[in-house]
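Can't attach files on this board, so I'm pasting raw text. These are the components:
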Amino acid sequence: MELLRKERVDRGIKVRTEGIYAISGWQEMLYLLMPRLLLIVGLLALPLILGPFPYWKRVINMMCAYAILSLSFDFLANYVGLANLGSALFTGIGGYLSAIFSLKLGLPVFLAIPLATLMGAVLSTLLILPTLPLRGVYFAIVTLMLPLLFCRIIEALNILGGTNGISGVPGFEKAFVEEYTVILVLLGFLFSLRRLVNEDFGLVLRGIKDNDQAVRASGINVTWMKAIAVFVAALLGSFVGSYMVHLYMWAGLSLFALDFSVIPIASVVIGGGGTLVGGVIGSFILVPLSEALRAFGTLRIAIYCIILTVFIVFKSEGIMIYLQRKYHQFERWVKV
Amino acid sequence: MGEIILEVQNLSKHFGGLTALNNVTFAVKKGEIFGIIGPNGSGKTTLINCISGFVRPDEGRIYFKGRDITGLPPHKIANYGLARTFQIVRPYYSLPAYKNLIIPLFSPRARKMGGWRGGGKYGDRDAVAVDILEELGFERDSRVPYKLASSLPAGYQKRLELARCLALRPELIMCDEIFAGLSMSEVATLVPLIEKLKMEGLTLIMIEHRLKELFKLADRVMVLHFGEKIMEGEPYEVIEDERVKKAYIGEEVF
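---
Top answer:
Structure tokens for the assembled complex are below.
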């Protein structure tokens, strides 16, 4: 009987292009560019493709919003080593700020969003700052707690509209502006974060994840670096918050909802942590899935949980890492 | 020689009821190799942790180049030019060896000093990192500097730890058991490197359990026992001292 063995062979292009830049022809350039182009063109074309289905067109916005939150979680968790359990803090603060800016100060949408993004990020970073010099689970606990705290404060003091929220926030003028704002911002954040983590600054952050004591001994202020990283992550989250406020023309307590903290984590788990794109792909699967499961009523959450569990058990590395491996290697059967 | 670079005065540290360091005073001269020995648990690593700022001492003062550095955070002390290695080697496993050096090269001190050994512009950190590694025996031709830190053998990982210190361009390096866990041949490659660093004017403090190698390298040796300094002197004096023998081998009680 003939014995066969499966052999995995690396295509070699990835290895050659990491650090030494030896691309020999247009095929190899195309090989490297294809996945990126697929994502960019696919995303830009999505609103056009889904034109005849207005309901699903609305889902694109949420898909992209959650994708940005996943980017923020993936960046902090897998490049800085901070487990952020409260992306909802960022969305909440960014959202309320944007509502205040456009209603109280009368700023137009395209001024309110960037301003709320920036101010929200500063404010969130200041709130999280006390936990940054500490090591261990404190960051996770405090980030989990802060959105709940804000929720209760707004509820108890009946400020910022209390449980009714702030309504009458100006929305986007046209549907395509709504869609392409979030799509372009997502692409911008994705590629600039990818660049950032490969710069020297990003290497220092990855060093903090591996061994923060050694980074400290290398003369780098770890708390300061972590604060910058949290600021970057909060920037992404606050943008999502302020975008959603203008999308729904309403700011309320649901901006601090647990969904904004949990779904990005699930997306990163499904998509593959540490790849940045993984979280984006994860939320492109999870968000439409959760919409499609609406027909099941309350059972939706149960089905959602089962799908998540199956993924974690059978493909714990995540879709993106699996795809990357398949793309860069090919398999063949060889005689033993 | 002769000029004092590091001065430790009456340093004490207690962890609860345990006295890790008790009134330790010593001074290190510029350009020498200063050995610190002592049995397990005698407070050697605590001493280094206190000097490098990872642990705040209860009493006493530490002066580096005349500047009081007691209680400063580790990154500030490192930026003054006082580097340290860790007893348990933990490189940044997910990064290639040369990328491990980017992190100290990113520090304010390294950026201000520029270049490596005074030469070269500071534009390309990667190139500087590979230069430093090559000097520590990472053969550039065999592509060792480009390998993942986690895939390197123990001897290389120890030298990577040293390289991480050198990238800071320090004036004083504190080595915490740099020979521990190395084979004889790996130690043999490390000893000339340390001699070379001394020749170049660097000051070294070495904590060591491999006394044979230490006594060959060190100019002066201090002995700690249960957090107290029992003696200080040239290696041959220390070897022959009765108190040191007792501390290492133990005393007859009966």
